[in-house]
Amino acid sequence: MATAVTRLPDHQIAPHLAAYDREQAAKRRAGLFGLAILLVLILVASHVAEVEPAKFAANIHQFTSYIGRIFHLDNGQFVLTDPAEWFWGWKKWLIHIGDTLLIAYLGTLLGAVAAFLACFAASSNLSPNSTARFIARRVLEFCRTVPELVFALIFVVAFGLGPMPGVLAIAIHTFGALGKLFAEVVENIDMKPVDGAIATGASRWQVIRYAAVPQVLSNFASYSLLRFEINVRGASVMGFVGAGGIGQELIEAVRKFYYSDVSAILLLIIATVMVIDLVTERIRHRLIAGEQRR
């Protein structure tokens, strides 16, 4: 059965419509004001960074021409006309990509283990000592704030060229990044099992082992796999500073103007990262699904 819709008289509706119009006008003014501030900040940043649109427009053809050159062989033909010539060094490049994967894997493993040990000291719910918590958080901040390439440069000077500086650089940066993520996971656990373990007289490490770790282990593994994906990409450019991996071959090809080698190496790196992303994504989804089923 249909019901009639009650309509207020116009003199009662008018104040509400006026108030609505005022609110909408205030939102538009706030939006325009925010947009104006954003434009001012962009202009200031452009001035400080010495951005020159005219120079950018005048030299953009050099970028596009370089992209075109890396997809042509030395004889001027398009790379797909002779794939064997294009990927002439694929065996050597695959060995370096294997080194890159090992650098990323070992760096991720060392960093994740260190982050696992430090995250409980940095979490507010499991670290009663505020001084220790403050120190742990500042150390993690330092390790993730300094770029990996800076660490790699320092270690190259200290230990010489090779994969070791890359492993150490990735491990330290991973320690800082995963330590923060792990600590945030720990801070969101259910504290009832922790309180129960404490009530039974369990020690601090027993509380962590039996009450905290079972709740966070799948998230820790998921974050570690995600970090491994990131580190594979990071390890690919470690060779720019002599820290091993496929980056050394890439920077050599760039410096010596081996245009087709640049595109071939880049495609191998992209393909490797894509495969790693797909595999680790599936593993992460299975871990998350298993955690939700429990």
Question: Keywords, please?
Answer:
extended, 294 residues
Walk me through the structure.
- It is a single chain.
- Helix content is 80%, strand content 0%.
- The protein is mainly α and 294 residues long.
- Helix 4 runs antiparallel to helix 5 (130-145) and helix 7 (163-187) crosses helix 9.
Give the N-terminus to C-terminus distance in angstroms: 48 Å
Question: What is the global morphology?
Answer: extended
Number of strands: 0
Q: Count of helical segments?
A: 11
What is the gyration radius calculated from CA atoms?
28 Å
What share of the residues lie within helices? over 70%
Biggest pleated sheet: none
Order of secondary-structure elements: HHHHHHHHHHH
Strand share of the residues? under 5%
Structural class determined from secondary elements: mainly alpha
Unreliable parts: none
Overall pLDDT, averaged? 87
Characterize this entry briefly.
The chain has 294 residues and is an all-alpha fold. Helices cover 80% and strands 0% of the residues.
Set out the fold topology:
Elements: H1 10-48, H2 53-70, H3 83-86, H4 90-122, H5 130-145, H6 148-159, H7 163-187, H8 191-199, H9 204-236, H10 246-255, H11 259-293
Helix pairs in contact: 4-5, 4-7, 4-9, 4-11, 5-7, 6-7, 7-9, 8-9, 9-11, 10-11
